[in-house]
Predict the structure.
Amino acid sequence: MASIWVKVSEKTLKEVDLILYIVEAIDNGIGPWDEAIIEKLKDVETPKILVLNKSDLASKENVEMLKSIFSTKLNFEFIVDIAAINGYNCDLLLSRIKELLPEGPKYYLDDMTTDVRESFIVAEIIREKILLNLSEEVPHGVGIAIERFAERENKDILDIEAIIYCEKDSHKAIIIGKGGQMLKKIGMQAREELEMIFGMKVNLQLWVKVKKNWRDDISAMKMLGYNLKEV
């Protein structure tokens, strides 16, 4: 039930400073989902940017066609075609985002680099390595639960234990890989980055479990660290 994510997104539309509407430049036109999203955005006064990604795979004619169609459906502050895979026009997009975002108050000290928990950082690094190594083989339905995060007494070693949750048995097999090689590779890459971040040796232990449809279960999402407001 993707409706949990849809409801959360809809509730925040009028609370954010800027909306990025991202579509694929290889699309043939506006589909039913786009029409539904556009209807939701019509009553939102928040500035909007239309981003056409994968422009490296699309013809100029198709890109211009999509720009024309979307601009007639909704008022965008800026429309840009990019290719995230090679960085094409990404600097232009970032500069326009900075121009459109209002300057806010200073909430944190100059030497404060993040306001999130260390366990959240660990989970995101592990998840990043999974997505980078598996590309489109496994969808983004991967959640990480940090079971243990503790520094050994009198030793410069950080013990971390984490469970990788996926939604299907086939995804579990892909994440583990033949002879456990993929999971070993993911763990090694995550450990190396964590050691740089925390400045000490990291003993990282990973397990993979199937939790079907966890993204549709609010209690499961909260267990995995997602701080959801009431939806």
Notes: The chain has two domains: 3-100, 118-223.
